[in-house]
Design a protein that fits this description.
By secondary structure, the protein is α+β, with helices and mostly antiparallel strands. It is built from 6 helices and 6 strands.
Amino acid sequence: MAVARGNGVLRAMPLPLADEVTFAFAAPDAEVSTRVAREALPTVVPHDVAARGLGRVAALVQGFASGDPELLRIGFEDELHVPHRLKLIPHAAQAMDAARTAGALAVTISGSGSGLIAVASRERAAAVAEAMADTFGGGVAFTSDADRRGVVALEQ
């Protein structure tokens, strides 16, 4: 489920996820503070960068629903924070390459970092997590299926 804000009212809406899609996560022992990660971002975002980002959201939603690898790759591309934060995470670019080589459909920085998150098939997810952790030289790595129940609206 995703939460959308319409007319000032929060509401839950379904966000389908293809059965074959799961996730791999890895983070090095190095830590990136949220403050430092925020400071790495530019204060102004060019209009064309913002517009491409919105298009990628549509690709990502459809990619999650269909499991389409190309749409997932497009949806995971990021110009808003990844280029600026990647340098804060030791060996992150190499770990992302290792994830793709191991079978990740797409990979990006998780939150402000230092972790990376990849989307993969169930068959490749463990290998993807291990490849990222090996590149980091340790840290934490795991796979996780999505919570397919998601957000639940409770009666007030």
